[in-house]
Amino acid sequence: xxxxxxxxxxxxxxAVAVLIVGAVAGHFARLLARSELWENPFxxxxxxxxxxxxxxxxxxxxxxAFWARLLRGRRARVPSWPIARAYFVSQLGxxxxxKALAIVLRALLIRPAxxxxxxxxxxxxxxxxxxxASGSLLAGGLLPLVxxxxxDHHWRNLxxxxxxxxxxxxxxxxxxxPRAARLFMSSDAPPTPRLGFGDLxxxxxxxxxxxxxxxFSLLMLLRAFGEWRFSLVSCTVFVACSYVAGFFTLPAPGxxxxxxxxxxxLLAGGLGxxxxxxxxxxxxxxxxLSLRFWWTVTEVGLAGLxxxxxxxxxxx
Length: 316
What we know:
Blueprint: H1 5-32, H2 47-73, H3 80-90, H4 100-110, H5 117-142, H6 151-168, H7 170-181, H8 197-224, H9 232-248, H10 258-275, H11 277-308
């Protein structure tokens, strides 16, 4: 029987993903199983959930607009609706271990609109790296303003920024891009597009605004549970740290498990002071899991909306 390396790697990724999710599920289950926790159940105010959903949707709309600007900067003239369709539908691909499927889906979905596969793929990679870099940079800059946390978080965030920021520099990225593109293109494909510092600076600013909306999304969810201790700044820092860490845990689909654990740990200290240690830890778990649920619902809803509705014909 012939050894299939690709199938083996895929099986390992799925196995690691299952182990991560299982370990996190067990950890959360132990925190939620305490009998004294449910003597006084938490109350949820549903109207605040609308802010959670809206904040997440707006964040990704801003990030998608950055990808649209990258495409048009590469002389890819394409209507706004196919860009939105490709961007939001491709987000579902990140739930496959490895996360590369999201890039491939985006490039395939935008190709009927006349965008070459290599341009779509390279700009999608650059958009993703820019989002992660701006999240690390924003968290690193705002972390000193957040009372809750330890000095270890500063060093962790600087490490994340270096990990994302170094490949993001145009001089390095433009060398790596052709090599990465060979995985998706034929040997006779035209040269890959080059990206400049203007794309980087404007992208960092634009995507940082998106992170603020993600922080707003978490803030609204905390309000739904009746928690008023945290500010928009602290919520943005917590979301950015947990999201970026989850992104770089490649076997975890959509950062599932890693993101929730880190967010729960970041929230637990402040919630413990407001609600007591036991209820604070449990509420942190409920917030982390609820945030994942509502963000996933928003992703699926937006993907279904842009995929099923008729495509517009207006050109940029």
